């Protein structure tokens, strides 16, 4: 049975409140036929390959968005911790993607990928507080960590599962740690009166 690295957001913080407020979208994602097929191995390999190519392109934009979090953050220690996690998560996910896709740039980003990346980078470049930027990038890490846990909980993923590398990577400790670090950063930085703007950015990221 796979080790369970998943941890919920810290109780009492803004991150926990945001995650709970968006459980409807999390459950919609989990029960989407694509995600269920990914978990049970019945997903069309061609659809998976297209997704992985797009996700690789998205990941490059996401890592750029995370760099805005570091630049805007006034929490030096957490910023350094986040930078270290960026290196680890970036390497792990790129290795996972390269396992399936040789040349993701050959296809170019599709509309959904462009929309998500543009959303993140627009917030990063805007004159907004650091909490809004962090709130916009948390859902990717938190949702993937949660879905990875849900798809692998209570079982060992067979060696011959066609998407085993993906499942193992997204249920692994680095993804959970990245979510926890981002959430800690948000919980430290959020200011009175910011919650509504932060909540809007968080939910929009969940929708995308």
CATH topology assignment: Heme Oxygenase, Chain A
- CATH C-level class is Mainly Alpha
| End-to-end C-alpha gap | 32 Å
Number of strands: 0
Q: Average pLDDT across residues?
A: 86
Shape: globular
Portion of residues in beta strands equals: under 5%
CATH superfamily: Heme oxygenase-like
Helix content: over 70%
What is the string of helix and strand elements?
A: HHHHHHHHHH
Report the total helices: 10
Summarize the structure.
By secondary structure, the protein is mainly α.
Report on this structure.
By secondary structure, the chain is mainly α. It has helices at 14-21, 23-30, 33-40, 45-72, 76-100, 111-125, 130-152, 164-170, 173-189, 195-207. It is globular and about 50 Å long.
Architecture blueprint of SSEs:
Blueprint: H1 14-21, H2 23-30, H3 33-40, H4 45-72, H5 76-100, H6 111-125, H7 130-152, H8 164-170, H9 173-189, H10 195-207
Helix pairs in contact: 4-5, 4-6, 4-7, 5-8, 5-9, 7-8, 7-9, 7-10
Features:
mainly alpha; globular; 208 residues; 73% helix; Heme Oxygenase, Chain A; 10 helices; Thiamine_Salvage_TenA
């Amino acid at each position: 049975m796979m080790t369970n690295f998943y941890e919920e957001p810290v109780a009492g913080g803004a991150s926990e409140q945001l995650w709970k407020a968006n459980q409807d979208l999390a459950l919609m994602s989990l029960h989407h036929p694509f995600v269920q097929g990914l978990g049970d191995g019945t997903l069309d390999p061609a659809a998976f390959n297209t997704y992985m190519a797009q996700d690789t392109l998205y990941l490059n934009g996401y890592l750029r968005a995370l760099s805005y979090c570091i630049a805007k953050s006034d929490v030096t220690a957490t910023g350094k911790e986040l930078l270290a996690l960026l290196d680890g998560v970036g390497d792990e996910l790129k290795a996972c993607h390269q396992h399936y896709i040789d040349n993701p740039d050959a296809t170019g980003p599709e509309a959904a990928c462009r929309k998500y990346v543009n959303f993140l980078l627009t917030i990063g470049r805007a004159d907004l507080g650091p909490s809004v930027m962090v709130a916009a990038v948390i859902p990717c890490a938190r949702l993937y960590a949660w879905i990875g846990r849900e798809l692998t909980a209570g079982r060992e993923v067979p060696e011959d599962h066609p998407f085993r590398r993906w499942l193992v990577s997204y249920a692994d400790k680095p993804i959970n740690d990245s979510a926890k670090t981002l959430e800690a950063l948000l919980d430290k930085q959020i200011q009175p009166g910011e919650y509504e703007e932060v909540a809007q950015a968080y939910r929009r990221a969940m929708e995308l």
